[in-house]
Every structure is written in structure tokens, then in C-alpha cells.
Amino acid sequence: MSRKFHVYGNWKLHNNAAASRALAQAVVEATSAFRDAVVTGMAPVFLSLAAVREAVPAHPHLKVVAQNGYPAPKGAFTGEVSFALLKDAGCDAVLIGHSERRQIFGETDAFLAEKVPAALAAGLEVVFCVGETLDEREAGRTWEVVGRQIDAVLPKVDAASRARLIVAYEPVWAIGTGRTATPAQAQEVHRLIRDRVAQLWDAAGAAELIIQYGGSVKAENAAELFACPDIDGGLVGGAALDAAGFAKIVAAAAAIRR
Ligand code: PGA
Fold first, then answer.
1. What CATH number does residue 18 fall under?
2. 93: Cβ below 6 Å to ligand 1?
3. Range of the structural domain that residue 185 is part of
4. Which of 30, 42, 123, 147 is the most buried (most CB within 10 A)?
């Protein structure tokens, strides 16, 4: 198994251009010792992408990530940004289907099934987010929901683009709540995702798929999460806003030998 750890920071709606540039510079510096071992990403707001791009040296293990994009290449879509424009702005990757997009902005499985192939076709790497709510988990419906989210999108990814897809499992009840899934809870869902992808794609594609965990990842819990065999890194929200703390999460990934 040769999967590299991928640790990406989702900065959400935080930081103006100057603060984003400073944070990106600090992250690049603080994580430089782990650059060979861990793929590291930063996702600022759209308007800070250019500043972050300038601050992040071109390197295959350093990713500038957008938080969203729109599937049509152009047209009458007021307020939207196309994947081609993100690519043009120097983005390497884009988050798609974050639970905040699904819950607050009403993004459906069907819409995400359009967005993911469009982003891949534009040449971006995609971090496709899935996860169940607390009600769904407590009702024993975790896999019903996550399996449905996976089934809606993964069959739309053509074989040539598979290596550019990352799945982020982010239980909604763990996002921004300080309540992290236990390593066992996360590993169980990661394994189910990988097994399902083996059916939808093939065994080799599933074995190579990077599956990040997200939801209150921090320096204190990263090592035990990343020690799980099917957890290939993290999508980090709150703890990514501090370069030193984020670097500790990257260091935890770098310390694990697979
Ligand atoms: P959190 O956010 O680390 O603040 O829980 C994770 C995410 O929303 O990607």
C-alpha cells in the first residue's frame, strides 16, 4: 500500500487576503520538514486564492485548494465561479460537497454528481466530502446515507480521473463541535467506503483512493486517527487556522510509517 497522507486545511469563511497570505507562508514554513512525506493543502476563500498561490511554492505536495466551484464553464450564473477559472487562478484542487454546502446551501447528490466530473474535467483534484448527521447516526443510518452519497458520485468519475479524486469522510456531528469520531468509528466508515469503491471501480482503484477524515481533527487526536489503516489524512477546519497547530497535525501524519 503506497498511499501518502494528505492533510488539508479548510479555512472556511476566515481571513482576508493579507491574513491568508501570512497564514499560507507560516504553514509552508512550519511544514517544510514533512514535505516529502505528507501532501499538504490550504483552502482559503475565493478572494484569497491569488494571495495564497503567490505564497505557496510550486511543489507536487503543496496544494492550493478552492472551497467550491460551479459546473458550467460560463454563462448566466450570477455570483458563481467555474472550475476552469479556479484552474486559471492557479488552484490545484477544490472541495466539493462539504456538509456546509449540502446543509446551508441545499446542494443535492444530483448536483454534486454534476460538479465532481466537471471539476475533474477542468484538471483539478477534487476532495469530495460525505458524512451523516447526528440524527442519521443515532438512527443507525450512517452507511445508508454515506453509501448513497458515494453511489451518487463515484460512478461518474472516469477511469482516467480516478487518481485525482479524494474522498473526505466528515461526520456532520463532528464538524466544528469538538466532538471527534473515535478512531474505530472513523475506520469503520472508511473501510466501508473503500469496499464500496472496489465494487464501483475496481480493487486497484479502491486500494489507491485517498480517504481523509474530517471533523474536529486537532494535534491531540491526529496520531490515533491517522494510525487507522484506511485513514489517509485529514480535512481540518478550526485547527487549520493556526499554522503551528496545523503543522503538528501534518507532523503526526509524517511520523506514521506504513
Ligand atoms: P473542523 O472542520 O475541523 O472545524 O471540525 C472540518 C471541516 O469542516 O472540514
1. 3.20.20.70
2. no
3. 5-233
4. 42
